[in-house]
Specification:
Blueprint: H1 3-16, E1 29-36, E2 50-58, E3 63-71, E4 76-83, E5 94-96, E6 102-108, H2 111-119, E7 124-130, E8 138-141
Antiparallel strand pairs: 1-2, 2-3, 3-6, 4-5, 4-7, 7-8
Length: 144
């Protein structure tokens, strides 16, 4: 058997046995938050209002799928992930659509933004805003 055929046969055998390095699959990061009206700075939130947030993020691809559910917050206007030191009505790092009391949605997020959030989620908060509470009806720290 000539050298080229032997090399091809060896590569084929190694691939069949899983000995060759395969491309690494992107790691999914799970992010969660428990939100309360009491967590809104200055007592501006809705007392007794709560929300839960769970997301699966693929920072390399910018895929961001989330479930946001809330109760006792009145008419919710929108939700967002904001920097921890930002006010509730501050600029969204990631805007979250709200379609009802339970939203299950996937959105594209700029990979560099998602990488920063996934690397240090404690630097970010999830805030749910209502017409009556534009600075936040409920807020919670993002975590893994």
């Amino acid at each position: 058997m000539n050298r080229a055929l032997r090399s091809s046969a060896m590569l084929a055998a190694a691939a069949a046995l899983g000995l060759l390095a395969a491309p690494a699959l992107a790691a999914t990061v799970v992010l969660t938050a428990s939100l309360t009206g009491e967590a809104v700075p200055g007592g501006a939130g809705v007392a007794g209002g709560t929300a839960t947030f769970r997301a699966e993020a693929d920072p390399a691809l910018g895929d961001f799928c989330y479930l946001l559910a809330f109760k006792g917050l009145g008419t919710v206007r929108d939700a967002a992930i904001v920097a921890a030191d930002a006010p509730g009505d501050g600029k969204a790092v990631i805007a979250l659509e709200v379609t009802g009391v339970e939203t299950d949605m996937c959105v594209a997020v700029e990979p560099d933004v998602l990488k920063a959030v996934a690397a240090d989620p404690g630097k970010y908060h999830v805030v749910v805003r209502s017409a009556a509470n534009p600075k936040g009806a409920a807020r919670g720290v993002l975590g893994k």
